[in-house]
Automatic annotation (TrEMBL):
CDD domains: YciF (cd07909). Residues 162-183 are annotated as: Disordered. This is Uncharacterized protein. It comes from Candidatus Promineifilum breve. It holds the Pfam family DUF892. InterPro entries: DUF892_YciF-like, Ferritin-like, Ferritin-like_SF, YciF. Transmembrane segments: none annotated. It comes from the Bacteria.
Length: 183
C-alpha cells in the first residue's frame, strides 16, 4: 500500500481485503490440518470448515464487489503468523491425541482472530450503509462462531480428565454472545 488509509471507507475496504486474504490462506491451511488430525471427528470437523471457508471466501469477494472493489493481493499478516505458528507446532508434536489437541488450539486462535475481524468489519459496514455487505459478513461470522463452539466441545470431549488443563470459564460462550447480539 502506497497511500495512507485516511477515511473509514478506506479502512473498511482494507479490512475486507485482509479478510479475503485470511480466508484464502485458510483454505490451504485447513486442508493440511484435516489430513494431520488423528480422530475422525476432528478430521471431518476440519473438512466441514474447509467447505465453509470456500463459501466465506466467495462472500467476502461479493462484499468487496458491493463496495466496487476486487481482491487486490493484500496479505493478512495476522493469519499468516497464526498459520506459521500452527505449522511449527504440527511439526514439533507427535501424531495422536496431543497433536489433535494442538490442532484444536491453533484452529481456535484462528477463529477468534476471524470473529474479531468480522465483527469490526460488520460494524463499519453498518455505519457506512453497506447493508448487503454487512449481511454477507454476518453469515461468515455466525459460521466462525459456531465452528469455535464445536472446536471447544471437541477439545472437552478429548480431555476426559478435568485437571488444570480444562478451564471451567471456557464454556464456548463466544457463540452465545454472538447470538444474543444478532438475535
Ligand atoms: Fe472463515
Amino acid at each position: 500500500m502506497t497511500e495512507k488509509i485516511s477515511t473509514v471507507d478506506e479502512l473498511f475496504i482494507h479490512e475486507l481485503q485482509d479478510l479475503y486474504s485470511a480466508e484464502e490462506q485458510l483454505v490451504q491451511a485447513l486442508t493440511k490440518m484435516a489430513s494431520a488430525a488423528d480422530t475422525s471427528e476432528l478430521r471431518s470437523g476440519f473438512a466441514r470448515h474447509l467447505e465453509q471457508t470456500r463459501h466465506h471466501l466467495r462472500r467476502v469477494e461479493q462484499a468487496l464487489n458491493e463496495v466496487g472493489e476486487k481482491p487486490d493481493g493484500t496479505v493478512c499478516k495476522g493469519i499468516e503468523g497464526l498459520i506459521a505458528e500452527g505449522e511449527g507446532l504440527m511439526t514439533a508434536t507427535t501424531f495422536g491425541p496431543v497433536l489433535d489437541s494442538a490442532l484444536i488450539d491453533a484452529a481456535r486462535k484462528v477463529e477468534h482472530y476471524e470473529i474479531t475481524a468480522y465483527r469490526a468489519a460488520i460494524a463499519k459496514a453498518h455505519e457506512l450503509g453497506f447493508n448487503d455487505a454487512a449481511a454477507l459478513l454476518e453469515m461468515n461470522l455466525q459460521e466462525e462462531e459456531l465452528t469455535d463452539h464445536r472446536l471447544q466441545q471437541l477439545a472437552q470431549g478429548m480431555m476426559p480428565y478435568s485437571g488444570p488443563a480444562a478451564d471451567p470459564r471456557d464454556d464456548g460462550s463466544e457463540v452465545i454472545v454472538g447470538q444474543s447480539v444478532h438475535a
